[in-house]
Every structure is written in C-alpha cells, then in structure tokens.
Design goal:
Elements lengths: L9 E3 L15 H12 L9 E6 L3 E6 L13 E5 L6 E2 L1 H7 L7 E3 L2 H8 L4 E2 L7 E9 L2 E11 L2 E4 L10
C-alpha cells in the first residue's frame, strides 16, 4: 500500500485511524460513525461489507473479500463521497441501506415524489436538520428510500443523477 490515492486502484479503508497510511483517507470506523450519526443506520447493517477508496474521496461498499489493493474498474457499489466540507451518500447506498435509517429521512407526498424523481427542486417545510437527507415515499405501507436530497433554506434539491431521473 502506498501513502497516496491512486485513481485506477481500490484500496481498502483502514479499520481505525491508527492504521491510516494515506492522509485524509477516511477509516471504516469514521464511515460507520457517519452513517450512524447522520441517518441512525447502525454499524451492524454494514457488517458484511468492506469499504474501499478509489481515487480521492470516492468510497465503495463491497460484500465479499479481495486482497488490497486491487486494480479493477468497479468493486461493489459507490456508497459515499467524502471530499469537501460535507460527506454525501450516493443514490445506490441510500436505496440499499436507507430502509435502516431512523433520522434525517424526509417523507414526500405522491406529487412531491414525482417532482423529486424528475430532478426538480421544490420548496418544502422541514423542521429537521439541513443538509443531505434520505428522501422517502410510502409504498405498500412501508417507507421506501427514493434517493438523496439536499435541504437548505426551505428548499429540497433533488440529487437524483440526470441519467436516473424519471417522469412518472
């Protein structure tokens, strides 16, 4: 393992800060703590997954075992972006793990959900934390995660990637 990020290679996140080799690389514990603090998703949910960084700040979750480092194009699913002031979960991670969230989940009405999935920003009242939220909609009596929204100043911005947006 080198002491720098390599864009064409996956490196397993170190378990703790004591094992960190690459400066600023998050640790597994920091990722678990972030999901628990931000969304109430407890660490056991991720027990079967390892976390990997490819390039700088792109964190992937992988269910399985491979040696580190590994030079391949994809490994599991992108889960988190950690560079910048605020960490951002990916749509894939929210749709996979968001059913375990207990906080910072914003439930939308049918019309609001349609607008959100189409990529529209919308003014909404929300008395919770500002920042990245798990946006949900009730489907068959259960709250299902639709994606990631960014809530600031009374507005919910849809973070659904352009290629995944849909008119319903």
């Amino acid at each position: 393992m080198t002491d720098e990020n390599v864009g064409e290679r996956f490196d397993r996140l170190p378990a703790t800060e004591d094992e960190r080799v690459v400066e600023e690389r998050p640790t597994r514990q920091e990722v678990l703590d972030w999901f628990a603090e931000r969304f109430g998703i407890e660490p056991p949910v991720f027990e079967a997954y390892s976390f990997w960084e490819r390039g700088s700040g792109k964190i992937w979750a992988f269910r399985g075992e491979v040696e580190s480092p590994v030079e391949i194009q994809a490994l599991g699913m992108t889960a988190l972006r950690t560079r910048g002031e605020h960490w951002k979960p990916t749509l894939e991670a929210v749709q996979r793990f968001g059913t375990h969230a207990t906080t910072n989940c914003l439930e939308l009405t049918e019309d609001q959900a349609r607008r959100f999935l189409a990529g529209e920003d919308q003014e909404l009242d929300w008395d919770g934390d500002w920042g990245y939220l798990i946006v949900t909609r009730e489907i068959a009596g259960e709250q299902e995660p639709l994606g990631v929204g960014l809530y600031t100043y009374g507005e919910l911005a849809s973070m659904v990637p352009k290629g995944r947006q849909r008119e319903l």
